Amino acid sequence: MVFADPGEALARAEKVLGDRPPPLHASVAHQVIGIWQRDFGDLRLALTHLRRARDWAARADSAEREADVLGTLGVALVHAGRTRQGLEALGRGIERGTGHTRARVLFRRAYAWWVLGHHKEALEDVRRAITVLRQADDVIWTARALTLRATVHLALGAVKQANADFTAAETLWDTTGQEHDKADAVESRGLAAFRSGDVPAALRLFDEAEERYAKLGTPTFMLDIRRCEVLMAAGLPSEALAGADAAVKALDGIGGQSTRKAELLLAAARAARLADDPQTAIARAALAVRLFAGQRRTWWETHARLVLIEARHAAGRGSGRLVAEAATVADRLAALGAPAAPEASLLAGRIALDLGWTADAERHLAVAARSRRSGPPLARLTGWAAQALRAQAAGSARGVLEACRRGLDVLDDHRMTLGASELRARATAQGAELAALAQRASLVSGGPRRLLVWSERWRATALSTPPTRPPADPALLRGMTAYREIAARAEEARMDGRAVPALEREQRRLEREIRSRTLHMRGTAADGRGRFDVGGRFDVGRLLRRLSDSGDVQLVELAVLDGRVQVLLCGQGRVRRFEAGPLAAAETEAEHVQAGLRRLAHPGAQARLPVVEAAGRRLEELLLGPAAAHLGTGPLVVVPPGRLHRVPWALLPSLRDRVLSVSPSASGWLRARETAPPPGGRQVLVRGPGLATGGAEVPELAGRYGGARVLEEDDARVERVLEELDGAELAHIAAHGEFRADGPLFSSLRMADGPLIVHDFERLDRSPYRIILSCCDTARFASVGADELLGLVTALLPLGTAGVVACSAPVNDAAVVPLMLALHKGLDAGLSLAQALRDARASLPGDAVHRATGWAFSAFGAA
Fold first, then answer.
1. What is the number of helices (H) and of strands (E) in the chain?
2. Is residue 535 pLDDT above 70, yes or no?
3. Is the dihedral of CA 457, 459, 460, 462 positive or negative?
């Protein structure tokens, strides 16, 4: 009962002890309390009760009872870090027990071997146990043994064997009332899904297991460790670090298992390293190494040493000694049969390369490169990274490009199993090194054209295909409706000056629930062969032809190599390269410009205008350099890297008076240029609540577009707005915008019944062909992954929108009205969004407020 209903089992055991039981019953009761404390409470109390259970078993003169207790005590001692004593207790239990009881103790020793990382011994003991347990028709213990064997198989990378055992165990669990073990089976299936490369399924199954554990009131430290691993693979290391640290604190608070603490510290160290926090990684990994060593857990200690070496290398502590340590760890991992062995060889090779030890580097990288041919996607990615570094060291640009292409293809396959746009975007971080290696090699071997191809290869790839749409999930829709209601109530209370901590807590809870459910969505292949037609297929000739066909448009793509901006000027049948300034300096200047625009949004800041214009000149020098003199006077498309998304491009002197549009990638501009408007030409005008001008442009626009759908006041509710936006030719939304840096997919436009968020837009079958967002901060994005953007505009572009006008800074509401009216006047005359926006800026008064308002808006796409 201790696993079927832990609370009830504990209460009954305590009641038994209160009734002066005979020795046999006292032994059982103390053992139950010991198991409960071992797995769900204070490990020190667990050891006290289990020793009493052993003593009462001896008094009862029952060898079988004593053997069973020794098995439980042995596991508890191992979890307490007393490995030698634990194994001795388990050995005595096997000697004392016979038949069925002995098989149960064998199972427990197999579990202890797994905890310690002795997988060969674990498989041998559990195999012997399963044979006897099946003969005894012991369904529960057979299922437990199958689950354990599957888990050991996973640790050794044998996913197929693990899945077979998990399936057999789950069939048995369905015939029992063991709710905790059933939850554990769901968790185990999640682990198997992850090892098979299915991150969304792993997250879904882990969430289901967590719900089951919550009903039982049991802690979930093993689940926390596994979820951290999946979050790291999904590109969410900061979340994994926070989760691991919180679990360590909770474990310390109850005096829990020392073994679990060490594993959580290892997970935290890995997460910190991936989150570019090497000092935290060093601290967590060093403590994990000490704990594992004290627990005699060689498998785990070796993995922790790998992370410690990686963190020291990331902190700039490369040395010959570190190469030797990495090589030793690689040898130990290989001897243990650990799938992480290639990572250690890759690390040794990297450090050796940094030191100029090419022969040593080649030896280690060659070993790591073997993993490129088989295994899960991220293991193959390790192999291709090693192969690319080998080719670079050998001076083979062609070899570098081939290895990078193959590695990024592997990552494409993995990324396209992810349905959520956030996970797709974040997963690209794992290919950033390959993309950078390829860019350097392409510049050396192929010049500007090849650099453009590789700049495009890993830029804005999350926008290359629409996210998986979630309208069929009723629970998600209910959660989004509840979120909207709570957010609207909280906003209303804040406007009244009332504190709303309870509403804000509920809003955050609903945000976590919505995000969790969207991360469960699995991607589907679009071409019928298991992968999307993305990446590696960018055609420079097609781009140049389309630019020429569009009226001698030029496209400026900004790549970043070794911290400097490379300007690729495409047009007139050729690609030219110019080197501009440092990216870091450009980012700093862009922030200064944004601060200036915020000030200019308020009357009385006229004196700041020359300062902002001077910053614009400095920004142009840093971003365009000598290329500015070769832009000509025709239309221009700017393709910036993700870290420069907040640049108000119309402020730059060379771009100020010209037709200008922005695109996340050249491929994205081509898709937008070739997107046809929907039939019917339907226009939708939306006016949200609380605008200083009341959305004054909307009534005038309604008169201009006679048949437009106008949604305002109570009609401007989220579901109604989405219904009208779907498939529209033109949409204009006047509403307060909010960018959420802490959760970009919760960036929103305020409607009558609450926020219209990015997740809502992703439910559209087809977003409007052209959409104008006349509100603050709608063109702000979060830069994630390798070179990806998350925000309102980027949610629309993969869903059929060919052009967007949006704003990257707070603006003056009153000054927006004449800009919008002039913009629509140009559209009515047949101009594109970029042409109409250029003319609309020119029509505004010359004061600082109006000029800053014009600069803050950009046209995205090609419509």
1. 36, 16
2. no
3. positive
Give, in degrees to the nearest 5, the angle at Cα 93 between 87 and 94.
90
Please give the distance of CA 639 from its chain centroid, rounded to a whole number.
24
Burial status of residue 88 (CB atoms within 10 A of its CB: 0-12, 13-18, 19 or more): middle
Q: Which DSSP state fits 467?
A: P
If phi over 0 gives left and psi between -120 and 50 gives alpha, with beta otherwise, what is residue 407?
alpha
Q: What SS3 string covers 557-622?
A: EEEEECCEEEEEEEECCEEEEEEEEEHHHHHHHHHHHHHHHHHHCCCCCHHHHHHHHHHHHHHHHH
Residue 614: phi and psi, rounded to 5, are -65, -40
Tell me the C-alpha distance between 787 and 267, whole Å.
26
Averaged pLDDT for residues 612-623: 94
The H or E element that residue 46 is part of is helix 43-59
- Residue 617 contacts residue 653 (beta carbons within 8 Å): yes
Give the pair of three-digit tokens for residue 484. Answer: 């909207």
For the whole model, what pTM was predicted?
0.81
For 523, left (φ over 0), alpha (ψ -120 to 50), or beta?
beta
Residue 260 · residue 251 · CB < 8 Å: yes
Phi first, then psi: give them for residue 778, nearest 5 degrees.
-75, -15
Buried b (16+ CB within 10 A) or exposed e, 797-818: bbbbbbbbbbbbbbbbbebbbb
Residue 790 bridge partners (DSSP): 782
Angle at 698 between CA 692 and CA 700, to 5 degrees: 120
**Which candidate, 448, 860, 858, 861, places its Cα nearest to that of 655?**
858
Instruction: Dig out the tokens for 328 from the structure.
Output: 């030793």
Q: Distance between CA atoms of 693 and 812, rounded to whole angstroms?
A: 10
Which of 650, 444, 475 minimizes the C-alpha distance to 566?
444
Nearest alpha carbon to residue 104 among 156, 66, 78, 77: 66
**Distance of alpha carbon 487 from alpha carbon 477, whole angstroms:** 15
β-pairing, 709-712 with 737-738?
unpaired
d(CA 691, CA 849): 18
Q: From CA 9, how far away is CA 29, in angstroms rounded? A: 9
Q: Cα separation of 527 and 530, whole Å?
A: 7
What is the torsional sign of CA 157, 163, 169, 173?
positive
Could you report the per-residue pLDDT of 688-707, keeping only the tens digit for each? Answer: 998 888 888 999 999 999 88
Q: How confident is the model at residue 526 (pLDDT cuts 50, 70, 90)?
A: very low
- Say if residues 213 and 6 touch (Cβ distance below 8 Å): no
